[in-house]
Amino acid sequence: MIRGLKYPLSRYTVHRPGTEPIEAVNQQSSTEQQTRNRLIDQDLARAGWSASRRTLIEEFVLSAQPDSPTLGNTPEFADYALLGADGNPIAIVEAKRSSRDELAGKRQASDYADRAAWHAFKELMEAFYEKGLHAGLPFTAAGTPVTQGGITYADFVQAFRDAHRLNPDPNAREVCVLCGGPLGAAPEVDHWIAKHAFPLLSMCADNLLPTCGDCNATSNKGRMPVHDHGSFQDWFHPYFRPGVGAIRLNYQLPGFAVTCAALTPADDVRVQRLDALLNLSQRWTRELKAEYANQQGKLKRYEAQRLSRGQARHTQAEVEAFATSFRDGLLESEPNHEVHRLLGNALLEQARLAAWQTELGLVT
Ligand SMILES: [Zn+2]
Question: 45 C-alpha vs ligand 1 centroid, how far in Å?
């Protein structure tokens, strides 16, 4: 217990994580280093805290946490960290010149202690997720304690996949709940609210969702925040405020650009946020163009086959029948269903049908 230490020449603050800072004030001015050497080190040693006994660390590094909402980018140092019996920091000591504002010193020590506690807590929760879940937790999915056979990362992913299988056939393609694209053979478990900023949610089932690799890529969602400085009002949430049925896809000819819009004005900002988070417009535009090229290639091949057999070229009615067949044959359970349906509608526009037939006329 270090509460009550007094220094005649310096102002310093002491703060144990979870308690209010305490401080001692002296009257004379001195540099931090001089004060420390002459007085603080000696007093701390008399109280049982010293580097030689390995109960104290000088210039204690407060790890930089570049993505944390509360921490800065530059590594910072606290003057001292006092260590408990287990070797972990239990208190932070900051030396301050007596000419400096007392409250500022208190705030700084308090802030440093919060950062040290935060860092230790974050490491604990991430270990629970990174190591515990992958190796198997000592609990069933229902929360019952077990000594072996607890839930694992693989169990979680499998349960999620089973629950979201649009086509019950185990061989059917699965769909990513975020982008509607293919889930892929090895979906990634994404923390909707990033675990580095909210470590307590790293093991919360409502914060976990397997997504496709593209959605989880750093160029898309990655570790991006899904809130505005802690406010979730303008954001969809996969479980609590899903965007299903709230988004309308539009397309623009002739470029086949896809844009997202909200069905109701109340969701305008949420749709914009989601679009920006996952780059949906951009990715869906790419998919629309890719599928168009795919269908275009098929029709050109049919045209070439006809010509090679001495048959007549496709009429516009036949091109329309091809596009109608494409649109009507789409399965809702297939990846990119919404984007392909959009393409089906675009292909059946009269101007697009005419342009398509003109393209076919160039096939030899
Ligand atoms: Zn996805």
Answer: 57
